[in-house]
């Protein structure tokens, strides 16, 4: 569905400064995949999406989207894809239903087909009762759902969503996601989205592409990334006097690293927490070391990012760091 090779985009900001926003991204997306592109502010996510949706051209490299080349066949690409940008495009004084019909006509549907499609989408996104409302009168969550409908009016098989849930409260985020996943089933779509919500990428996407400083630094399922790059952390509570002995046992666990004792707790990073924990407790019992408490902490995608870059994605977000 998507194939890029060394896709690159520079922005010349002044005679002395060029921003290397995207530095040679090679990516393949198969039909039906749901891919989340994750990275801190300024990582190059939006720029990549803008190239794939033909809004801007690459400086170098190639990209084929839905069978067409983004540089030489942008018109064909646009007809095949849907794009929901950040803070999207519905006109504020238009009525929601009219906006959708108008969008359908722009995409070449005749008025009747556009109205039929509008009815279908309004229903699927639970907006039917709001069709007569002006866009400016919709809530943030409703407006975002309308944005998604706008991107789907011409029934694309490939949908790009740029930070679809940014600015929504948790309830509206969950609701938007319900709708997106339902639409995906209904229309058998491939979806590529950008997000900086770690939990969202983790739970929704089957595949996570981590981008930093304009490059892909990891690309796999969230589960695989977490177990390969971060591992689980075991935390055992024992009497302080027993910490050295239990630390020695922890060192022998498969894939053990970062063995740290703090207070009465021993922490160790292992490849497979649920398997390692009973093994460690058994070994402790055999040596007569009582274990007062034990927990397995599964890693987050933030642990993965930290592991890859030495920075936390959350910190990078808070500081608003740019590439
Ligand atoms: N039109 C432009 N002119 C100059 N620099 C740009 C332009 N668009 C983007 N950039 C720069 O390119 C880099 C990548 O920006 P991009 O918007 O792709 O990041 P992002 O990962 O989408 O970030 P965010 O999560 O904040 O949306 C940033 O340093 C940004 O300042």
From TrEMBL:
Pfam families: ABC_tran, DrrA1-3_C. The keyword Mitochondrion does not apply. Keywords: ATP-binding, Nucleotide-binding, Transport. InterPro entries: AAA+_ATPase, ABC_transporter-like_ATP-bd, ABC_transporter-like_CS, DrrA1/2-like_C, P-loop_NTPase. One of its GO terms (molecular function) is ATP binding. Residues 2-238 form the ABC transporter domain. The keyword ATP-binding applies. This is ATP-binding cassette domain-containing protein. It comes from Kribbella turkmenica.
């Amino acid at each position: 569905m998507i194939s890029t090779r060394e896709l690159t985009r520079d922005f010349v900001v002044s005679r002395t400064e060029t921003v290397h926003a995207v530095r040679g991204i090679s990516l393949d997306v198969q039909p039906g995949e749901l891919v989340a592109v994750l990275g801190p502010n300024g990582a190059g996510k939006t720029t990549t999406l803008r190239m794939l949706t033909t809004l801007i051209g690459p400086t170098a490299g190639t990209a084929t989207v839905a069978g067409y080349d983004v540089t030489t066949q942008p018109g064909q690409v646009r007809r095949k894809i849907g794009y929901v940008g950040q803070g999207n495009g519905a006109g504020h004084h238009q009525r929601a239903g009219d906006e959708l019909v108008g969008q359908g006509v722009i995409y070449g549907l005749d008025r009747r087909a556009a109205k039929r499609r509008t009815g279908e989408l309004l229903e699927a996104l639970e907006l039917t009762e709001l069709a007569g409302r002006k866009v400016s009168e919709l809530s943030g969550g409703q407006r975002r759902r309308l944005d998604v409908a706008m991107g789907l009016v011409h029934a694309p098989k490939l949908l790009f969503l740029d930070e679809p849930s940014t600015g929504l409260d948790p309830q509206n985020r969950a609701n938007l996601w319900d709708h997106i996943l339902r639409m995906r089933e209904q229309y058998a779509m491939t979806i590529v989205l950008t997000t900086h919500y770690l939990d969202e990428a983790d739970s929704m996407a089957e595949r996570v592409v981590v981008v930093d400083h304009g490059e892909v630094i990891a690309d796999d399922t969230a589960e695989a990334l977490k177990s390969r790059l971060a591992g689980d952390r075991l935390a055992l509570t024992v009497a302080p006097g027993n910490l050295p002995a239990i630390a020695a046992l922890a060192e022998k666990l498969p894939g053990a690293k970062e063995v740290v004792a703090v207070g009465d707790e021993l922490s160790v990073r292992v490849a497979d927490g649920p398997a390692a924990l009973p093994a460690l407790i058994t070994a402790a019992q055999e040596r007569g070391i009582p274990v007062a408490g034990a927990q397995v902490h599964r890693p987050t995608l933030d642990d993965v990012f930290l592991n890859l870059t030495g920075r936390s994605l959350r910190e990078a977000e808070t500081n608003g760091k740019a590439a």
